[in-house]
Amino acid sequence: MAPFSNKQDIILRNFLITVLCLLFLGMFFGLTGALQYLSPGFLKNYLSFERVRPLHVSSVVFWIIFGAACCVLTYVKEYVAGSLFSWKILKLAYVIFLFSTIIILSSYVYGIFGGREYWEFNPVLAIPVTIVWVLLLIIFVKSIKTFKKQPVYIWMWLTGFCFFLFTYLESNLWLIPFFRNNVVYELTVQWKSYGAMVGSWNMLIYGCGIYLMDKISGTKEYGFSKTAFAIYFLGLFNLMFNWGHHIYTLPTHSLIKNIAYVVSMTELILFVRIIYLWKSSLSTALKHFHYLPYKFLMAADIWIFLTLALAIPMSIPAVNIYTHGTHVTVGHTMGATIGINTMLLFAFIFDIIWKEKIIAPEKIKNFNLVYWIANGALLSFWLALVIAGFLKGHWQMHPASVPFSAMMSSLKPFFIIFFIAGSLLFLSLSVFIFVAVSALVKMKPQATPQAAT
After folding, report:
1. What is the rounded distance in angstroms from the CA atom of residue 72 to the CA atom of residue 5?
2. Fewest C-beta atoms under 10 Å: which of 148, 153, 180, 390?
3. 338: how many CB neighbours lie within 10 A of its CB?
4. Which neighbouring-strand residues pair with 253?
């Protein structure tokens, strides 16, 4: 990417800095919540767990969603080799996003709630969030201009933008009495929308991943390949129908669950493909591993494998009974949000700032150590949650064996590992955040023609 040279670039830079700060806050509140899990009375009178949890969740979800959108628009600007549709609309979107995020997080601190999971803020605040997303969607569509003969990542970005808007609105259907007055209806639509929502932001992020891989390879072959489009349609298929495994425990129609099970098993195609291409992937990794963004791509690739290895059995009803509502689900979520989404977003952000050569070579060498600490800590973090979750799931199916308190006490060693690994993960990722923010701040605008209005 060229140096930040106009109003659009400055706004995109500020967007990236803001979402990186949200990631830091999300990790900080996550670590605070983990400490409260070990010591329930910690900060109880000042910032209790019921406040810390939504502070953690909303901060991280906003980091992923709006971080992905910002990276998409940055790559779109690079792809069209010109300006985005309107810097004024982009600025308006950023201002609304900034102030609504501050209000949302502040409301949590003061104990003002009213929403549902992911979005526990007052539903009135869903209006500015929706407006921001619509504005970003308009900028994307108007900047691309035509969708004829476009590479797969353009279609992935369009799908991600549209489906996130749809699923976000769907997640607020509980406001309608028809859903709110029936617990099964409400839980069904909530869990359905969240499952599909993850697929929508995955489209945005994976699209950026394909774009970056084409950049690294110096060709556009993969973006137009039949394999890429086949994987896109498989992802779209899962986005629309895979959510059913989230509601196995609800008394809904069995047809929905059966379809979800079959669709979930199509993920085996991706799983087998990763194994089949492992040798060639390793050769490519050795060739490009000196390039910092590629390190994050490789980390994400490994975490995609591990996440699928866990997600596929979790989609089997007989296994889902043991894992649903346990720390296995938390571990699966952490592996996806940190190991895949966050690592990929770091790859894109460091790609954006890499060509400016702002990061000193000695810092890049130090990054190797921090990089391995981060991934090692995440693996320990993930394993502790998964093992604790399976043990708790076994107890849930055999509750007469030992009391709940005794079962939780037996899991304490795993929670201690979880906290220590989480602390190392927080510190190592904070290094990446600090370096990225510092580099973005140093990217000064240059005198070039004005962007389109």
Report:
1. 18
2. 148
3. 24
4. none
- Phi and psi (nearest 5°) for 116? -125, 180
Determine the 3-state secondary structure of 113 from DSSP. coil
Distance in angstroms (rounded) separating the CA atoms of residues 215 and 178: 49
As given in the structure block, the two tokens for residue 222 are: 């993969």
What is the residue extent of each domain of the chain?
1-145, 266-445
Q: Which of 425, 293, 344 is nearest to 67 (CA)?
A: 344
Find the mean pLDDT for residues 301-311. Answer: 88
Residues 131/96, Cβ–Cβ less than 8 Å: yes
Tokens of 38: 């070990």
> What dotted CATH number matches 266-445?
1.20.210.10
Task: Name 119's bridge partners.
Answer: 116
DSSP assignment of 221-275: TGGGSHHHHHHHHHHHHHHHHGGGGGGTTS---HHHHHHHHHHHHTHHHHHHHHH
- The residue behind tokens 């890499």 is 354
pLDDT, tens only, 222-257? 888 888 898 899 889 888 887 776 777 777 777 777
Distance CA 221, CA 287 (A): 19
In angstroms, the CA 222 to CA 207 distance is 12
Tell me the C-alpha distance between 242 and 269, whole Å.
Answer: 14
* pLDDT, tens digit, 9 for 90 and up, residues 345-355: 999 999 988 76
Query: Residue 96: pLDDT above 70?
Result: yes
Pick from 319, 310, 309, 233: nearest CA to 271: 309
Taking only the tens place, the pLDDT of each residue in 321-354 is 788 778 888 888 888 899 999 999 999 999 988 7
pTM of the predicted model as reported, rounded to 2 decimal places: 0.90
What DSSP string runs through 7-34?
Answer: HHHHHHHHHHHHHHHHHHHHHHHHHHHH
Q: Which residues lie closer than 8 Å to 183 by C-beta, 6 or more apart?
A: none
Helix, strand, coil percentages (3-state) for the chain, rounded to 5, are: 80, 0, 20
Q: Is the distance from CB of 116 to CB of 190 less than 8 angstroms? A: yes
Contact 154, 144 (CB under 8 A): yes
Residues 354-377 have pLDDT tens digits of: 766 666 555 666 788 899 999 999
